[in-house]
Amino acid sequence: MFAYVVRRLFIGVILLIVMSLVTFMLFFLMPQDPARVACGKNCSIAQIKQTEKALGYDKPALTQWVDFLQGVVVGREYPEDKTLREKAPELISDCAAPCLGYSRVNQVTVASEIKEAFPVSLSLAVLAFLMWIIGGVLFGVIAAVTKGTVIDRGIVALSLVFYAFPTFFIGLFLLKFIAIKWGLVDVPSYTTIAEGGIGGWLSNLFLPSLTLALFFMAGYVRMTRAFVLESMTEDYIRTARAKGLKRGPVLFKHTMRAALTPLVTMAGLDFAGLMGGAIITESVFNFNGLGKLVVDANVSYDLPTLIGLVVLLGAFVIVANIIVDVLYAVIDPRVRVA
Amino acid sequence: MSFLSVRDLRVHFPTIDGVVKATDGLSFDLERGKTLGIVGESGSGKSVSTSAILGLHRRTNAIVSGEILLDGVDLLKISDEDMRRRRGRDVAMIFQDPLSAMHPYYRVGNQIAEAYRVHHDVSKKAARARAIEMLDRVGIPQPDRRVDDYPHQFSGGMRQRAMIAMALINNPSLLIADEPTTALDVTVQAQILDLLQDLQRDFDAAVMIITHDLGVVAEMAHDVLVMYGGRCVEYGSTKEILTHPEMPYTWGLLSSIPEVGADPEAKLLPIPGNPPSLLNPPSGCHFHPRCTHRDKVPGDLCWTVSPELTPGTRGDGHLKRCHLANPDVVYEREVLPEIAPDLVEER
Amino acid sequence: MVKYRKRLLAATAAIALAAGLAACGGGSDDKSPDNSPTGDAGAEGAKGGTLYYYIYAPYEHVDPQRTYVGVELTNFRRTIYRSLVAFPISEDADVANTPVPDLATDVGTKNDDATEWSFTIKDGVKWEDGQPITCDDFKYGASRVFATDVITGGPNYLLSYLDVPTDKSTGLPIYTGPYNSSPEGQAAFDKAITCDGNTITYKFNKPWPDFPLAVASLSMMDPYRKDKDQGAKSNYQMFSNGPYRIEGSMWNKNKGATFVRNDNYDETTDSTDIRMALPEEIVFNVGQTTETIYDQLIQDSGDAQYAVTSQRVPPAYYSQIVGDIENRSVLVPSPYVDYLVPNFRRLTDPAVREALKVATDAEGWINAGGGEKAYAPAESIVNPAVIGYQDNPAFSGPQAGDPDAAKKILDDAGVQTPYPIKFTYPQSDTADKQAAALRETWNKAGFDVTLDPLGDTYYDVVQQPDKDSDVMWAGWGSDWPSAITVTPPLFDSRPNLTANSDGQDYGAYKSDEFNKLVDEAANAADVDAQTAALQKADEVLGKDVAYIPLEIAQFYFLHGSKVTGYMNTPASSMYPDLGPIGVEQ
Hints:
The complex is a heterotrimer. In chain A, helix 1 (2-29) runs antiparallel to helix 14, helix 6 (110-145) runs parallel beside helix 14 and helix 11 (247-277) packs antiparallel against helix 14. In chain A, strands 1-2 form a two-stranded antiparallel sheet. Chain A has helices at residues 2-29, 34-39, 45-55, 61-74, 82-87, 110-145, 150-164, 167-181, 193-232, 235-242, 247-277, 279-284, 290-299, 303-331, 333-337, and strands spanning 76-78, 93-95, 102-103, 108-109. Chain A folds into two domains: 32-111, no CATH class; 112-299, Orthogonal Bundle (MetI-like fold). Chain A contains 15 helices and four strands. Chain A is an all-alpha fold. By secondary structure, chain B is of the alpha/beta class. Among the domains of chain B are: 99-171, no CATH class; 245-346, no CATH class. Helices cover 36% and strands 21% of the residues of chain B. By secondary structure, chain C is α+β, with helices and mostly antiparallel strands. Chain C has helices at residues 2-11, 13-18, 70-77, 93-96, 135-144, 157-161, 183-192, 211-217, 290-299, 350-359, 362-368, 403-412, 429-444, 459-462, 487-491, 493-496, 512-522, 527-544, and strands spanning 50-55, 85-86, 100-101, 109-110, 116-120, 166-167, 172-173, 193-196, 199-203, 244-246, 256-261, 281-286, 307-309, 329-333, 336-342, 375-377, 419-426, 447-454, 471-477, 548-558, 563-564, 582-583. In chain C, the strands form six sheets. In chain C, strands 14, 15, 16, 17, 18, 19 and 20 form a seven-stranded mixed beta sheet that branches. Chain C has a five-stranded mixed beta sheet with strand order 10-11-12-1-13. In chain C, a hairpin with a 5-residue loop joins strand 4 and strand 5 (116-120). In chain C, 57% of the residues are buried. Classes of the chains: A mainly alpha, B alpha/beta, C alpha+beta. Chains in contact: A-B, A-C. At the A-C interface, helix 2, helix 3, helix 5 and helix 8 of A face helix 9 of C.
């Protein structure tokens, strides 16, 4: 198992390097010239060239990529200008190894951008994850054991509704009615535990997490329901009943164990995706997490931030995949031997 | 009164299209220490009937009626909880495919011990010791080690042995084996059947063995019940049924047994046609659309009138459901030469 | 001028009347929402309270030498960044477009040909740390503009105007800013801007008669403290010399900032004509969506009662702005003009361009885009709020498009119809509808129109010399209220047309007549002469159909009920003017 994980991690690192290269190439293949945009109105070619230098996009794309990789290993300074180092050292920004890059647009290291945004996304993802897993599995199981009844149909119909509505719609709807019209909660704005305590942190996270959770929950309700119903027809469930087991253990020990296994895989990957994927929710609620960072970096042609995020989010997914695979082996003994 | 006495058992499933009569008026008796073979094609109602005995249709939409008297107690009248307590303790079941019938995520020993702990208030350790003991009893080598294996780590035969251990751990008085050897290869089949016979002697249990294989019946059963379309079509002692069957369907089953060591080129006679629909069974005799002897019955009796279970020509508890006036003669003269010419010569 | 007043009056009727300008236009039957300031009806509100300012898109820069967006410039000009001169608070464009002294003692002294400007800095003006604002601080601020590889994104007028020689090899001035310049460059710069005690003198290589307008509009000439400068790292740093200072010294790009009172600000050195500085605190809240901002403003509860915003009412919310809520709304013309550019490389026949102009249904375009709440008609590419505005005679009067007349022009010129043209514009659902409205009359006139909506990139595409568009959409607003920042940057072929790009002259318009008038304006020693030349230049553009004006986007804003002195002024680019705005307590 250990060798397997090491091998997977190694492949993951290679994959990340390739992803960073592809992102570099795609960025420079864009028709838009970031320097022209950043330079503003009435810019001469010479000024655009200067802006290109200021943004660090003046070298060939491949050279920039090699510089990036080198920075990850040994660190960099921005800009790399020896005469400037002597004349005006306060203008130079250091980026120690492992340097993920330095955003010229925001004038901070990519690592510190991520450090600031990560807790926001993590908080959102964790809370949303808990809500949707608990809600999704609970309602899914209820629907499965009440199959065909009004309860089952109600749950399935409601989950369809939430699944069909776009996230931004649900987000704006919750914000407009729960926070603004009815004033049940304040308009959320991300508050760290240090600033607002657990209560402040939770209450501000509630609506955005719920927005995210409702969408996922809808899917998980239907999946849980299907998996539980499917595993209820398994022979080993009949065996369990024939042994004289009570309904409780049959459902929770035998049925759920089998039904939830595929959910673990999906939940793990969804969670990893959410770390950088809550773009719409973060935008609607103005939470400055990784998703919003991605959008902003895109809008402002901030390549270093984009690269850093691509690598980070790629790493999330790769690590999540490995964790899910390991988890799977823990859950399903058949996988262990294989 | 018999140890197990089933009277007019009906299991009906209401569906949108109508009522599926999976079991429709089944009656039989079984004593401790005896084995009843229930034979029939897939969909003839064998498994549905035995599931009814275990009470597995409870809390489903199935409508079960009739009487299932086990040691004088009507299993259809007792509470769900009472039934649950009897499951696995008084009545135990061995399933067809042990790989799918065992939970893939739990250790074999765990699953066996669980069956014990449901009915006995003992520690996990004690249950585990009992599981090892049972594994040993069913012939699993190194049971103290294999007890911690997962089902997929067992071979097919070992899995079935483990299933048997699980079923017998509570010393049940009635054991239902649902096609216990179908999924196994021939040599393992024989071992399992031997084991079952051994154990039956030891435990003095009543055994119902469900199969579509008359060979298994010949080896195991004292009595045979042939099912077709949810009904009993022939019933009697194994010897009687195998040597003097009086129902064309049973003849068909006999003719479709491949004989071990037989010439592969030899003619196999499967029963032509399909099993009857349980939703819209054929009129008259359920078997008439596939029956090659219906012309011997005068008029359109086979089409219009469902035959009753009547005593066979040789008496002795033999029952058959057929309009043929002289089935013994038809069998001797027409069927036997077709399916076993060597036997005819011997006579 | 008269025309301009009439327009402004229509938009700001109540104020105009209150200010005694009724003579210019008489009563107004304008149905636009009430524009009178709420609360104390424009009278001075009391000091104190917290004002909230809702912003959606993050500000790219708050460094004075890098800021280049009208609303950002004016927000900071009224609160944190003072300069030599500033525009006063007024809804009357004549008043609003006339700079008044701010950190300088007067509005500046120029030499005869307007190539040299001098200002004397007031005594007693201080930075937020109590140090006096010196001439050197102004000089240092201007020097930063030259560090084009560090201080990017800001206005670059100084590079071409200031009397510093150009390096032939780079095409840039030999002075490259305070961080890393050659001694020769430094010497040249030290000659171009000189300090004599408290008096700063700027020497230009050509006349700059409207220099004070540029100083007031943009913050590129603002003072900057050398010891606070960290180059690009100072992008979000704010060091105040105004009535407020930023809490925590850094503007948070994604959150905004809170402005609090600056203890070292001496209001006797300032004028309430420029800043009333009423709220105790101003909270800039960045990032809420327009929908969330307007949900809160319409609900008018909590902080939103004390809020203004630079986001416009989204069309989906128009129907909610009724009753009492309507009293909190304003509808004012923006400082921008949207226009069409014929591609002179392809539409070489003047008759074709003329027919295109005559057939253009600007009213249809406006109606398809949301009507009067979204747009007002435009009769020139120059916005009416710009000094010296006049209707371009080529576009005077209603522009509903006259396909019959256009067809006649084409027929008379012997142009074969249907004449295929391709119309390029940035794609959006609204723009698609508007483009379809234009196509209708164009097709009737004998054109065969292909619509060419573009996705993410727009200007980069229409700047390409080899584009196959025949007509393109574009929009523009002035940098300061002079047409010199409108028509020359858009139609002077000399700086714009290069081998790789058409610059901002998207239609590749090239006219010696026009260029001559631009030179005349650029070399004019006073604003009146400059204005006269630019008015003639615009007429040339109209005659050649270098552009076809479409509309002036309307600003439709809502503010909280406890906001006092609410105004949208030319000085604030028609966004909420933080100069007079206060809050009830």
